[in-house]
């Protein structure tokens, strides 16, 4: 949205007469982000505090408007824009479930308005036509990424989309960087939808490993797309690559839970966080992969990667008012402390004879294939909970068993991944492991919505 239409919304809200819920949301969200940017740009402490106070006032008004939305909303382009902005606000504040409700509503509205169909908008004025296509692709990018993040089917079927994809010189973005970024973002969003449909959807998990199209999707994220990373978000693409490679089982001689390509892309993603902080939607997959890999192999270099990310987040929280980054810092710090405790314990006890797992491999011992990490009994006495995280075991058990430092004899592990409905349907072992792993990972994301963090 450019300055001219926003000014019209502003005058409508602050002039006599009734303003719609959409008008209020657009104005309050726009002013909130405007004041936040002004606060970050100024160096004067007094001016910074004044901008912050104005931003918080607009934030409170925005949340009031969102909380008073009626059950039925009109399907207009203004309401669609308002729902899109509401989704962005919820994502910024680490509320992915609320963001999904808003972005799904916006998605349904764009399809009701025909923004996805070239035939439906063929006879509209060029300015209206381009505006509808632009808002559709913006919603498309956010909706596809969030659906994969939450493990839900997308509300947009690619076969129904007939409007042209954006090009670098399309839609008149004010920033040249955005003009280059937008086409690649839509392509990445399409790939995110394919990853869920072809690898992680319940129907795909029922298929044998050789029927899942992991290799083909990995090739899509190959060299041609990596060449475009100079102007796009590397972290998002590396995290998606890591999620794709997670579905590829390791080779027989590797004796690890994760394949070498999955570990490689996870390392690259965490390294890239030092240059490009994309923390609200993509870091979980690489971080969880590295966390589990450190617990399994005690790789000091990978533990250092986790340490670097936590340190980067810690330095960022000193300069930001984003509650999302602060929540992620608490969660990542807790996981990092657990990894350090495991590594220290295994190093200290390496000279003592260890009981062999029943299958003779490391997978059963650490229960990593199901997404859970059960500690050896000695850790229960020696590992202290991180500072400020005293109730972490209860919280993590409640959010899906990502790991637990309670007694493994009293905490049941997750059972095999099963599907409702057809009770005769078989799910192969690899599909069961992937289903459990993705479920636990999504539960970790949802845990950040809890006020505990």
Automatic annotation (TrEMBL):
State one Pfam family annotation: Fungal_trans
**Domain of life per record:** Eukaryota
Q: Which GO terms fall under molecular function for this chain's record? A: DNA binding; DNA-binding transcription factor activity; zinc ion binding
For the region Disordered, give the residue spans. Answer: 347-367
InterPro entries given for it?
AtrR-like, XnlR_reg_dom
Alphabetically list the UniProt keywords: Nucleus
Residue ranges annotated for the Xylanolytic transcriptional activator regulatory domain, each copy included: 99-172
Which example biological process does GO assign this protein?
A: DNA-templated transcription
What name does this protein carry? Answer: Fungal specific transcription factor
Q: Which organism is it from?
A: Colletotrichum higginsianum (strain IMI 349063) (Crucifer anthracnose fungus)
